[in-house]
Amino acid sequence: MEAVEGKIEKQIEVTDVKRQLIKNQRTLLLRKLLSSKQFVIGSVVLVLFILFALFGPMISSYDPYEMVVTDRLQSPSVEHWLGTDNFGRDLFARVTYGAKVSLGVGFSVAILSSIMGMIIGLYASYYRSLDHILMRICDGIMSFPAIMLAIALMAALGPNTVNIIIALSIVFTPSIARIIRSSALVIREQTYIEAMKSQGARDWRIIWLHIAPNTISPLFVQASFIFADAIITEAGLSFLGAGVPAPDPSWGNILSDGKEVIYTAWWMIVFPGIALIFSVLSINLLGDGLRDFIDPHGITKRIKRKKQ
Fold it and tell me: What is the pTM assigned to this prediction?
């Protein structure tokens, strides 16, 4: 009995040590991630924008669609914090609702394009017969400028928020697919993958349980950049009249309305422009921080270049 109890105690001690090691490893990874100034600044600013989009409409007492012609083109004041537009609508209310639209479109496009890109990239890397077909289609899509292809798709689908998400997801999926494919090709040649094939493991099991988890890190980095690109592209589409249709607010169509009165109502360009610039900048900083965390050798290379 004493020998059995001793073995049980040793097993418990080993389990506790493993748990402590895992906890310490997670703590070290978190500290390493938080030590990146780019990641911290980008995360904080992005969280502020998300809170602004969620709770901003509750702060404003104005309806973003309500037009008061007598209040048109009023400069920022206590009553209208960011002024009014050329239809007398409160600009603060429209910018906050526009934040919800722009950030929502960007996030949805990042998620949808990541899912489709992962599926295409994984199957293209595993099946050589599919590789040539899928990658040539991706090359064909990537040969067009993103904004031009998005305009063409919106002309075919029609201007509304759902169609913008679909169009931009089609535009940005090939870049995700190529990155997943390049990562999966390396993993596919690993010894343990060959061992699983020899043991008769099914293809879907190898692809989704052993290859896919190892492509998550580059996927997150690329998805963060897609998030920022989608916000800019949506704003460009809305500015050109091919995106979010009026009177729904979007940073892009607010800027489009402001271009006609830029010399007399500067606030219609400045405030939505600042929101667009800082939101995209924060997401790019977040993506840079994630990239440096996942690929520390990239930091070493940049440090060596600076020393030279």
Answer: 0.84
Name the token pair of 280.
């995209």
Domain that holds residue 194: 38-307
Using CB atoms within 10 A of its CB, is residue 87 exposed (0-12), middle (13-18) or buried (19+)? middle
Is there a domain that residue 104 lies in?
A: yes
pLDDT digits (tens, 9 = 90+) for 146-202: 889 999 999 888 888 899 999 999 999 999 999 999 989 888 888 888 888 888 888
3-state secondary structure of 88: coil
Q: How many domains does the chain have?
A: 1
d(CA 19, CA 27): 12
In this structure, is residue 150 part of a structural domain? yes
- Listing DSSP states for 244-295 in one string gives SPTTS--HHHHHHHHGGGTTT-THHHHHHHHHHHHHHHHHHHHHHHHHHHH-
Distance CA 202, CA 146 (A): 38
DSSP type of residue 76: S
